[in-house]
Structures are given as structure tokens and as C-alpha cells.
Specification:
Layout lengths: L8 H12 L4 H10 L10 H14 L2 E3 L14 E3 L1 H10 L13 H8 L7 H31 L5 H26 L26
Antiparallel strand pairs: 1-2
């Protein structure tokens, strides 16, 4: 019995892309770049070709009629099959899409920053603010381009980019708050630490 393929995020992104129109690997990479898809889904160039081979072997994509074998594997045009569409629809029903939290690096830096040298906290806030403002400007330009392409604001690409814009704006507001409160920064007044349970003495205590 053939083992059912487990679809990763790159697999699903490619299935969606090829469901729009047939493409070869090089075209898919160009389109991923044009849409800034790598901002929200980590898909490297080698991953595209790995996923294409995997999806073809699973029967989720097939060579399109206009594919030219003489052009080589990088130019083989693929399209999503009915099985690929069904597998994508099945994967989108999974609970994990709605129950995960991101782990951005800057909040982690904030948590560790009490060990930073004097003056670094404010310098890092300034660096983060500069980065966010650059990204905000880039996303606004992306949004303008998307609206021009789709012709209306009720499209999934518009919703995704507007979410990123709002997140950047919220974090910039949060950074201004941190800067105001920095002079009042102080250690915890009533620190508490995890205690090892006698019933679980064989397990290490959490740190």
C-alpha cells in the first residue's frame, strides 16, 4: 500500500500556485519572489524543485499538456491535479493552522536584555524601529501593487499584507511605549521559581 504523502507548507504553496495556472520550476520561483511569498512561508529555491518531485510522485501535480520535455526538468510545466486540490483542501482543515504562535526573535532579545551592557537597550530599540519602518514602507508598496493587480480590496493577498502592516504599526507603537518606560525598568519584586515535585523527582526541574 502506497504511503500517503505528508504535505509541508512549501508543498501547499506550490499546489496553490500551480492550481492558478501551470508553471515550471523557474517560473514558480519567479512568482514566489514577485509576490514576496517568502515573507510568510520559508521556501528556498531548492525546496521548490524538491516539492515538485515529491508532489509529482504522489500524483498531486502532473505534466501539463504544453510541457516540453526537451527543455529539461527545470522547464517541465506542471499543473495541480484533482487529487492535489483534494489533498490541499484536506490539509487546510487541520487544527494546527489556528493554534500555533510565532516565535519572533526581538521579544526573545527583550527577555534576555537585562544582561545587556548599558546603553544597548535603547540602541537596539532604534535599530528595530528603523527596520520596522523600512518593512512598513515595503509592505505598503506591495499592497499598492496587489490592489492594482487584483482590482479590489477583498482578496486574500490584500488581507495578508494589511495584517503585516497592522502588526508593524502596533509594534512601532509598543516600541515608543518601551522607550518611555525604560527609566522605570526594575527587577521583579517577588520572584518565584519552579519547585520540583516529589512525585516527579526523576525529571529535571524547569528553568
Amino acid at each position: 500500500m502506497k504511503k500517503k504523502a505528508t504535505l509541508t507548507v512549501p508543498d501547499l504553496v506550490l499546489l496553490s500556485l500551480l492550481a492558478e495556472r501551470p508553471m515550471h520550476g523557474y517560473q514558480a520561483n519567479l512568482e514566489l519572489q514577485r509576490r514576496d511569498i517568502r515573507d510568510w512561508a520559508a521556501i528556498s529555491r531548492p525546496q521548490v524543485y524538491y516539492s515538485l518531485e515529491k508532489l509529482a510522485a504522489a500524483g498531486f501535480i502532473r505534466k501539463a499538456r504544453n510541457s516540453e520535455p526537451a527543455s529539461g526538468p527545470e522547464r517541465t510545466v506542471f499543473e495541480t491535479t484533482a487529487a492535489g486540490r483534494a489533498a490541499t483542501a484536506d490539509a487546510l482543515e487541520d487544527d494546527h493552522w489556528t493554534e500555533q504562535r510565532d516565535h519572533p526573535t526581538f521579544p526573545t532579545w527583550i527577555a534576555l536584555s537585562w544582561l545587556a551592557r548599558p546603553g544597548l537597550f535603547q540602541k537596539q530599540l532604534q535599530r528595530r524601529r528603523k527596520f520596522l519602518n523600512q518593512e512598513l514602507a515595503r509592505e505598503k508598496e506591495t499592497l499598492r501593487s496587489i490592489l492594482e493587480e487584483v482590482g479590489h480590496p477583498y482578496h486574500e493577498a490584500v488581507w495578508m499584507v494589511t495584517l503585516m502592516i497592522e502588526q508593524f504599526r502596533i509594534e512601532l507603537k509598543w516600541l515608543r511605549k518601551l522607550e518611555r518606560e525604560l527609566p522605570q525598568r526594575a527587577p521583579a519584586r517577588h520572584p518565584a521559581y519552579a519547585q520540583e515535585s516529589p512525585a516527579k523527582s526523576d525529571k529535571p526541574a524547569a528553568r
